[in-house]
Amino acid sequence: MRQQLTLQLDAAAVPTAEALLELAGADSIALADAGDDPVLEPLPETTPLWPHVTLRAVFPASADLTHVGDLLEGACAARNVKVTVLHDADWQAAIRQVFKARAFGQRIWLAPADDAAVPAGRIGIRLHMGLAFGTGEHPTTALCLDWLDAHVRRGATLLDYGCGSGVLAIAALALGASHAWATDNDPQALVATRSNAELNGALERVAIATPGSLPAVTVDIVAANILAGPLMALAPLLAAHVRPGGALVLAGILSTQAAQVAQAYAPYCTDFAHTTEQGWVRIAAVRRSANR
C-alpha cells in the first residue's frame, strides 16, 4: 500500500516541487496536463508544454505527509492538495504503464523486468518497477547513467551511495565493473537493490549494506544521486571512499545549488565538470592525491 499526494501548480514551479517531494521521501513523481497525459518527471530532452500541471507523488504508507501539503502551498503556490491511499497493484500498474525500455548513452538498454528484448549492440539491464526510486526516467538518474555509460571500464569498482533501486551499481557491473557496493538508509531500497541485482545475475558482485555497516572501502567511482544538502554534508565521507585519481559523480542537484555543492568538494577534488538537464545538474570530479 502507498499514499498518493495530488496537487495542481504552474509549470514553472515543478522543479522546486520535485526537489521538495524527493526530500520528503517520494518514491515517484508523475506529471500530467489537463488531458491527463502522463509524463514521469518528464523524460530527458523533453519539457512539458502545459502551463498548468497536475502532479502526483507516491509515498510509502509510513510517510508522514501532515505538513508536506502546507510546505508546497507556501513554496510553490500548490493548489487542490489531497492525499489518497493507493493499493500496490494500482501503483505498480501505473509505473509499468509509464516506464518504457530505452537507451542511455552508447551501451545501456534499460527495461522493465518482464521485457527481455535487447537491441543489437546494447547491454540490457532490467528493473523491477515500483520498489524504489531510480527507473532512469528522472533527469538525475539519466544523467548518472549517461556518465557511467561513457566512463565505466572493465575491472572498475563503484560505490552507489543512496542506491534506491540499485540501478547505478547494477549498470556499472553490466558495463564491466568487477565489484560494486550499494548503500541506502531506506530498508526498502536495499530490498529493491538485492531483487534487481538478482534479476540481472549480479548479486554475487554487489555488496548491499546500510550506511552504518558500510566498510571503509576505496573505489574507482563513487556515484551519489541524492540531494544537495546531504551531498554537501557527506563530502568528507564520500571523498574518503574514492582512490586518488578516481571519480565522484554527484546528482540530485538543482542548477541553483551546483556552485555550493562544488565548493563543498573543492578541498577533495579537481577537474569539476557540470552537465545540466531540465534544471538538474550532474557534477563529476576527480579525487585529489591529497587534500589541500
Task: Describe this protein with a few key phrases.
7-stranded mixed β-sheet; 9 helices; Rossmann fold; 2 domains; 29% helix; single chain; 5-stranded antiparallel β-sheet; Alpha-Beta Plaits
Task: Give me the number of helical elements.
Answer: 9
Structural class from helices and strands? alpha/beta
Can you give the helix content as a percent range?
A: 25-40%
Number of domains: 2
Average pLDDT reading: 84
Q: Give start-end ranges of low-pLDDT stretches.
A: 34-49, 131-135
Account of the protein in words:
The chain has 292 residues and is an alpha/beta fold. The protein folds into two domains: 2-95, ACT domain (Alpha-Beta Plaits); 100-287, 3-Layer(aba) Sandwich (Rossmann fold), CATH 3.40.50. Helices cover 29% and strands 33% of the residues. The protein has nine helices and 15 strands. Strand 9, helix 5 and strand 10 form a beta-alpha-beta unit. Helix 1 (14-23) packs antiparallel against helix 2 (68-76) and helix 4 packs parallel to helix 5 (167-174). Mean pLDDT is 84; it is low at 34-49 and 131-135.
Topology, element by element:
Elements (H helix, E strand, L loop, with lengths): L1 E9 L3 H10 L4 E5 L5 E2 L12 E9 L7 H9 L2 E8 L1 H11 L3 E3 L3 E5 L10 E5 L11 H13 L5 E5 L5 H8 L4 E5 L3 H13 L6 E4 L9 E7 L2 H6 L1 H6 L1 E13 L3 H8 L3 E9 L2 E8 L5
Parallel strand pairs: 7-8, 9-10, 9-12, 10-11, 12-13
Antiparallel strand pairs: 1-4, 1-5, 2-3, 2-4, 6-7, 13-15, 14-15
Helix pairs in contact: 1-2, 4-5
